[in-house]
Amino acid sequence: MSDTDARAALPRTDALLADADVVRAATGRSPEQVRRVVRGVLSRARAGELAVDAVRPEVLHALAAPASSLTPVLNATGVVVHTNLGRAPLSEKAVEALVAAAGHTDVELDLATGRRGRRGSGALVALLEAVPGAEAALVVNNAAAALLLAATALAQGREVLVSRGEMVEIGDGFRLPPLIESAGARIREVGMTNRTALRDYEDALGPDTGLVLKVHPSNYRVTGFTGSASVRELAGLPVPLVVDAGSGLLAPDPLLPDELDAATALADGADVVLFSGDKLLGGPQAGILLGRAEVLERLRRHPMARALRVDKLTLAALEATLRGPVPPVPAALHLDPAEHRRRTAAVREAVGAGEVVPCVGRVGGGGGAGVELPGVALAVPEACAARLRSGSPPVVARVEGGRCLVDLRCVAPEDDARLAEAVRAALVEG
Ligand SMILES: *Cc1c(COP(=O)(O)O)cnc(C)c1O
């Protein structure tokens, strides 16, 4: 075949894009991604790098191969912030921003002057607009990194005062004291497990005190005969007060009355409040620090800040989360009960089996310990749970009381049909 004949024998881009097998192989990819793959394969064929009859198999292969081994799953557990499922799913706007930032961006360039710009200033401005009580903002890799940076910059070689009631384990064996100690600071425990008063901090305060750390109990509760010093009381001490608010509420949420929010902590006098970006805020993994300009400037200028900084993708997704419509996490938290029932009944209808039962959702390890989110779930036989997990898409449901509960709270409404299909397949297998 001459070159001209070979080129004439190549399928047309449009024909490939309309090919039923190609459409099926491209599940989950955007039309733009599919077009890019098809064009790429065709151009290799035109360049003679690929035989003409290898074009279609090559396209199918490229489209069907997952881009990474991380498999998207449907979270039907009813646990809103599920650390093992990647915590917060990003909003559509945040995904858009992430993709747009994936190439070259002006992350550290002022396009107007051509000079170097402040890295990620858009996300920082969005944070300050969201929490007007903050003088300055800083974003690092996660809340643990934020804590490490604060302890290093403010208390290296000195003491960090922490209440005995706030010596927490974050999860997966990571505990607060070793983290603080790895910053070269010493933990000085004050008070008792159930009760700590301002007086306990005052007694421990000395020339060696670097900072007072208040950790909000987001994943546990101390109840009974208890007491702790408030942020407002601790703010009167003559050393920096750092508040680890953990779960990332920017302002009070009536649904979570016991959760400490950033605006309140700052209004009560905290010098720095830090929290996660991917818990209740519903954004990308990040550690956000808000507070007094002078203190945050010390943190920003510390050499360790450079080692903990975030990439342009995080900055883009964080800014879009803050500016965009309500992200999936707060939406799942505040899901309208009537809507929850209606969607669950519709899925039950599509599946043609199972029973709609009451089901209590949870905020998750990210915060709101003990808070119950009343709702409903579709109950199917327990054996379905494992089949759902190994299905496509994998569905992670909850096993409770000998049944498998499929809770739609954290499932995006546009995924209801895929969820119903997955449940139907899991029931048929049994
Ligand atoms: C979750 C949590 C952390 C850790 O946050 P990461 O962003 O996962 O590092 C720290 N402190 C508290 C109180 C938390 O709830």
From TrEMBL:
The enzyme's E.C. designation: 2.9.1.1
Localisation per UniProt entry: Cytoplasm
Keyword DNA repair (UniProt): no
Enzyme class, first EC level, given as a word: transferase
UniProt cross-references to InterPro entries, sorted A to Z: PyrdxlP-dep_Trfase, PyrdxlP-dep_Trfase_major, SelA-like, SelA_trans, SelA_trans_N_dom
GO molecular function: L-seryl-tRNA(Sec) selenium transferase activity
Domain L-seryl-tRNA selenium transferase N-terminal residue range list: 7-46
Keyword terms: Cytoplasm, Protein biosynthesis, Pyridoxal phosphate, Selenium, Transferase
Name of a matching Pfam family: SelA
Pathway named in the protein's UniProt entry: Aminoacyl-tRNA biosynthesis; selenocysteinyl-tRNA(Sec) biosynthesis; selenocysteinyl-tRNA(Sec) from L-seryl-tRNA(Sec) (bacterial route): step 1/1
Entry annotated with the keyword Transmembrane: no
Residue list for modification N6-(pyridoxal phosphate)lysine: 279
Main location group: cytoplasm
PANTHER family, per the entry: L-SERYL-TRNA(SEC) SELENIUM TRANSFERASE
Family: Belongs to the SelA family.
Function, in words: Converts seryl-tRNA(Sec) to selenocysteinyl-tRNA(Sec) required for selenoprotein biosynthesis.
Protein name per its UniProtKB record: L-seryl-tRNA(Sec) selenium transferase
